[in-house]
Records
---
Amino acid sequence: MSIVFVNSPVAAVAADILVLVVPQGKLALALADIDGPSQFAGTLAAACADENFDGRVNGSFLVPSLGRVAAKRLLLVGCGAGTANDLRAASGVAGFQSRNKSAKSVALFFPCSPLAGREISLCIEAFSEGNYRFDKYKPEAQRKAACRTLSLVGVAEDAAAVSHAEALVAGQTLARDLVNEPAAEVYPESIAKVAEGLAGERISVKVWDETKIRDAGMGGISGVGQGSDRPPRFVHMSYTPVGPATRHIALVGKGVTFDSGGLSLKPSDGMMTMRCDMAGAAAVIGTMKAVSMLNPSVKIDAIFGAVENMPSGKSYKLGDILKMYSGKRVEIHNTDAEGRLVLADCLAYASQLNPDVVVDLATLTGAAVVALGEWYTALYSREDSLSAELLAAAGESGEAAWRMPLPDLYRDKIKAEWGETKNTGGRNGGSITAALFLSDFVTTKKWAHLDIAGPAFLDSTLMHYCPGGTGTMVRSLCRWIGP
Ligand code: BES
Ligand code: MN
Ligand code: ZN
């Protein structure tokens, strides 16, 4: 999608859809340039009244222009108080509706909100999010056209905001595509190849096969991966900035390309969407994609373990005791609590690199979804400043994270009879005990864990996100990483 800045009078802007973003209670002002005698002649104001449209966030309606203005259709979208986040939400609705109508050219007009800098970027990001569909397996006739040209009307040109948005969108879209692809397409070897595809001047990529993983002592990744005909992969991407690095970050992702539960097999309902269980790795890959375009002054190591969790004669079993990369022995109480085993090896490896901070992302627990629903990422960290940074970056991006407690009081829940720890902590506080388990494999002082089990994959449309992968946290991570 190309972005153009247009400065002609709004009534003269040619587009499949012209979007008018209307703040609540400012209808007259917002319609001034388009509802005049030579245009809609007051009929738009009347239509708004009939449709009960007053500019509330998420309110919208579409009208044919009947030749009264140059655009073919007019979409009115509310933006409430007109905060950056409201403008973002309105742009998301515009992107979503435009895709439903197969609009190839869309013009966005904010009559009451002069956009600048960050808002321009946010609106492009949200429009792109809303315009996204995963329809490559649908017959041509059932696919809707994506927007090819997005015009920003009456906005002063800002090339930096556009390229920033384009990088974030490219990263997020890659993550969504990876999550949406069936597990027959995205499996450990193939997702490792996607990471390898990001190798370039500033990014190097190392991939370990199953033998190297076993020989290195990564018993968590080996154990979970051994039941599948698809062998596991361990991936380490490394980005080095051109100039001196302001800090050294490690990103870690859970890359379970399909989670059947293993011998602790999931019922069909719970298994249906488990191709999404590599969303953490997808977020890490997507972020590196964006990083390759943004060139931040930060050193980044990005790590994920890619495995398929399957039941077979070779599967790891309940009662097995895995020797992890860190040397710790973990007693297996449920083969469906596999993510923490894969992550534990990656976190121990990441810690060895001595970064200033480690952030991991994982569709780790159903308990996080029960606690916070599908919109919130559960954030765990002992570091107040790191938590604040991540919450702020999510807030700025229009994503949502909520800090959860990490109490030592619950450590007893993961104490094992024979090994050092076990891989389940019971039903109560399931997302917390999973985070506590992970914490035992991190030696870096600053560490945060993002349980994205809720927002990574949507069963039904939520705001301007269609069902399926969302690419959650890619944009937030990019903002957190900084320039
Ligand atoms: N991948 C799942 C968690 C999950 C659930 C992600 C729903 C996305 C949506 C994870 O591997 C899992 O199965 N966790 C178990 C842990 C339990 C066995 C201790 C869970 O949450 O039930
Ligand atoms: Mn599982
Ligand atoms: Zn899982």
---
Amino acid sequence: MAMEMDQLVALCKRRGYLFQSSEIYGGLNGFWDYGPLGVELKRNVREAWWRDMVAGHNELIAPPGAPEPYQMVGLDCSIIMHPQVWKCSGHFDLFCDFMVDCRESKRRYRHDQVNGRWVEHRGRRVFVATEAAGDEGLRDTEQKALKFFNLRNKDAGELQWDGGLVSLTTVTDHAEVLGPDAKTLGTLTPPREFNLMFKTIVGAMGGEEDAAFLRPETAQGIFVNFKNVLDSTRVGLPFGVAQIGKRFRNEITPRNFTFRSREFEQMEIEFFCRPDSSPQWYAYWRDRRYRWYIDLGLAGDRLRLRDHSKDELSHYSCGTADIEYAFPFLPPGEFGELEGVAHRGDFDLRSHMEGKLVRQGDQLVLEVDAEGKPRHRGSGKDLSYFDDQTKQRFVPHVIEPSAGADRATLAFLCQAYCEDEAPDENGVPQKRTVLKLHPRLAPIKAAVFPLVKKDGMPEIARDLYGELKTRMNVFYDEKGAVGRRYRRQDEAGTPYCVTIDGQTLQDGTVTIRDRDSLRQWRVHRRELVDELAGRVG
Ligand code: GAP
């Protein structure tokens, strides 16, 4: 059955996956808290990423598709960095979105997220705007147009539509625009640029000159530490530096649950390589990262790799591909970004050396002001690399796979949500909601139940629970009918339930039940820990 987004949102609240931040005060838009199960799920997403990309990486052999073996190390940098970092990285000037305000409704919109349709009635032509997209956008604009022209539903045929839904960015003059929440025309302001970095003041007596920013990406911490990593380890090209951490983006219109938040976590790799081999590394990381999501359970038909067109590229990028997922809150056929894999060239290291660069044709050149002075000065430090093999000095090129931990977590939740039927203890089919999370990601790996609360079953179950707990996150439950206990764990996404029953007392075996296939089998209690450990990864 297709999932409605509000069913997942309700489950996340009910089972303690996600709560709105500061909920008892009415919440704060764009900020989310992970509950007891959510915190485990997101930690498992981060740990799977770190294990697969960094800790478990074998630097002695080239993984499939990699041009040669490479090394991986990690960093954990501060959230607030020297303000000059953001000037040289380009974020100070370019990390912006355009917004429009509505004078009538007092609402603010991201310019590129407002859509609309041109419609004419009795010689009057109006652009009817909506925040919705796809079929919902078409329905919404029709209802708004009927209201605006004072028509009833049965008169909808009198409206003459000129084309389908298009972005508000295609409309140059807002005089004939009916805003998404307005009753009169021309209430939307012209688009204005808005920097998305959160500003703060450092120090108790700080003034504007002590302004600093919450990092808008984790990547820059890696670039400014490039020399420190080279000097303190034995890494040599090619190598990657990984970082997981919070980043901030003062989104104009946060929406779609955690998909567009203002505070979120990022899992990034800056992969340094020789310029001539960078195209192969770019292809390697695109494919490697795409496969990672598939291996952890995202369906191939809901996941795609999309190359950016030239005008979509970020200011630093000379090639980017997005890994995108068909989130259920998007109109059919639309995909939302999960991760970007960018070829950043030598933009960042050179910017932190020389000063902020701009692209001129195929060249990166120093950006200068009207007097010919650098617009933003670099550190002046040498961030080049001496290649022992070729005896050459150069600035390495960078491939950056940049994933959102919260978006990945949301995608895994969307993919896992399912409603089906499972037999209860009497064999009667019962409706159940189940989260079919990959066992590596599931917050609770197994639940341990004594079938009944007597005959020594709880004692054995508690012993087994204690043994398992040393190896994985497990849950103990002895309350209520066993069928109900199974269903509770299905909804929490627990892949295995272990039941201690009458036969356990006779031969020491316990029943394991698989959440997805509902298959049940018996193993000896001595083998239980290894059996489950092998399955949950
Ligand atoms: N260093 C490059 C960089 O930061 P980005 O496209 O800004 O690139 C990378 O972000 C990833 O972070 C995205 O692919 C997405 O998964 C996640 N992300 C971006 N904005 C987000 C937001 N407002 N809320 C949640 N996740 C977001």
---
Amino acid sequence: MTDTPQSLKVALLGAGNVGSQVARILTEDAAMLEARIGARLELVGVFVRNPDAPRDYQLPRELYTADAAQLVDRADIVIELLGGIEPAKTLIERAIANGSAVVTGNKALLAQSGSELFRAAADAGTQLSFEASVGGAIPILRPLRDSLSGDRVTRVMGIANGTTNYILDQMDTTGAAFADALAEAQRLGYAEADPTADVEGHDAAAKAAILANLAFHAPFSLDQVHCEGITSITAADNEAAAEAGHVIKLLAIAERIRTEDGTDGAVLRVHPTLLPREHPLAAVHGAYNAVFVEAENAGHLMFYGPGAGGAPTASAVMGDTVSIARRLVRGGAGRTHTPKAVLPALEVGEATTSYMIVLRVADQPGVLAAIATVVAEHGVSIEAMRQVPLAEDDAVYDAHEGTGVPASHEPAESLLRIITHRARERALASTVTAIKELDVVTDVVSVLRVEGN
Ligand code: HSE
């Protein structure tokens, strides 16, 4: 009979927002954790660049070290909360080579090198867990990997970035311009001083790759995600969305598709998306996250909660840590996610979606017919079309950046809102290009994809 360990050595890499909260929970909830695990979690050290700097949650000075390698070599469980690629990758590889289990929240690293790290952990018979990498506190990766492993997930749509959800929600509810909503997000501490990773969609794209790995049990990486951010969303887009009964969300979408020639694959995409107001994801406000999952047998599921922040993300880190510790107490090899299915990543042009297109058009006979003809020529059909004389709709027109209605404006133009049926993205994009070239179209006010309809 093997001896049950009385304690397990834990190394913490990073003492930022999340790391400080993990240190707090390990310290203040030590008795609860020991009772649940059957062994004590002993925090043997915290790797930080400057051991003398003050911390949000201050541990005894002797626990802080700038020697990460030496700390990793002493641990049964390594919790990596440094973020970024290096030195996180080298330290995780070192821990795995030592046979230690690893918990990480590092979405950028997993989206880039997840397959390599999962394989290394599986070969070493140890465990690499990463619930905190997507959706903060929301338990979403374990349900995709385990609870739904007897089902076939067809689509995952996530509000996976709290900063952009806050900005878009502000634009929708207060009519704020993008720049003002971003400034407010920075003032509240949601957005970084350099907001690029959030507003350009890169953070959501990394999460899309991770979600797809688990949902489809196949390897995907960041470079396979089509990514568009929210920087070009205008008040005119929001007005048009609201008039059509929709709201704009930045969605990370991973879906199984079959191409016209019968190839099965997956399309991964991040872009601003119109959702009907009654869609469950439309009700996700502020900096919250949510992931909407569609599965063949389960139907529709939604996972909702705080997607960032020290304590919420630390909750997910601790869930992984307790799970690993219980397994170490019980004995047996670690179980690491090793995607086995073969599902090629396909170009975004293969996705099916629908578009809402808002145009400024000349108010003259034959305009609607000319536009309908171009749409039909591209194999796209129109679900709804609505024309509003411009004089009745100055608010929308005025809000479109860079344009304005002259005081003496004669209503010789209209706004035309077209919502298409679902079609291949490729056909929809070329339809918009052709529409732009029509003489009767004086401006393309808004083009956004629509989901959930
Ligand atoms: N910047 C991210 C967000 C933090 O706004 O959601 C969590 O990954």
---
Amino acid sequence: MRILVQKFGGTSVAKRETREQAIEHIMDARREGYSVVVVVSAMGRKGDPYATDSLLSIIDEKDRTNRRELDLLMSCGELISAVAFAAQLRGHGVEATVLNGPQAGIVTNEDYSRAQIVTIQPKRILQELEKDRVVIVTGFQGGAPNHEITTLGRGGSDTSATALGVALDAEIVDIFTDVEGIMTADPRIVDNATRLQTVTYTEICNLAYQGAKVIHPRAVEIAMQKNIPIRVRSTMSKDEGTLVTSSHESDRIEDYLGDRMVTGITQTANVTQIKVFAEPGQHLPMQRNVFRAMAEHGISVDLINVNSRGVAYTVTDRDTPEALRVLRGLGYEPEIASGCAKIAIVGAGIAGVPGVMALIVDAIVSEDIEILQSADSHTTIWVLVRGTDMVKAIRALHNKFQLHQR
Ligand code: ADP
Ligand code: MG
């Protein structure tokens, strides 16, 4: 059996018309001889009646204490979506079976709202496929061994799709969404962002971990373990999208030669820069006190810079009040800049290439934008800018690296 997993995101299943386009893709795959397993997200985005956030809003925020029941509630969105999808598919004369997470054999641990898939027992799915049916699995959910329903957290449907791809030894996992593929930057920010024809698992993982929300990094890591290719494609068109594999399978010679210095640019908004300065001679205990206190209060720190005058680091805006409370409790008066954005310039070709930082600084400074802090790894350079400068800085960088010509 040649199995294809096709995952349709929120906007792809939101309306009858978009579901119709999704169904086209399923029928195409069947015509090509594939047995198709479909994974669906809940319908629409925040504000839409059956979207996960809308279901959650039935319960007042202060009453959202029972995590087990919240997972029961949140798992309804995908179920509604799957049943609507199956009904519409039958209208085209295609037999379909809807399975929720536990029915599909997706076994998770019991960590509600962020459960991890432990194993998948695909027997039932395979039985249905044998009967020439399309199996429609609710994304974002599974079941713990004690019959509890669990949800998988952010990007959970992507994870359901690739985990099923691995369990079923699928030929490909298709991630259908509302953009034409993985782009050199978020198309909502950069008009002339271009589609990447092929990327490696590592490249897209880096982009996704740095904020590009087109696919969840956990989903990519799962596919990578068994080398299952992923295609990120648009529901609205028949274009090929972006192929994600372990190596570039491109006919473009420059991709083979690896001279793709920068793959793409992505960002994380709503972060706060915190700087703590030390009294003369006190910088060693201060450094230790600050990071120990952040750790003890479960505040995750990023872009860390430690020097003899003090320390600088970032936290999410959400964690800022708590971080300030803790630091003041220790007797420090930190300097803060909230509402900042961390821009990541990602590319496997960045390592060791002279002049990359010069290009970055040049692009940003030419726009009169101040770089508040920076950091680098072998695949990524980060710059921290004020939130109000974010869009301008990203566009300037996109131009500087000529990513519109990809
Ligand atoms: P879905 O509901 O289909 O899972 P998501 O909203 O999770 O869709 O992901 C698709 C969105 O990701 C796009 O609409 C786009 O705005 C955003 N995005 C951010 N960075 C990128 C990028 N580099 N390439 C493509 N899309 C991106
Ligand atoms: Mg998504």
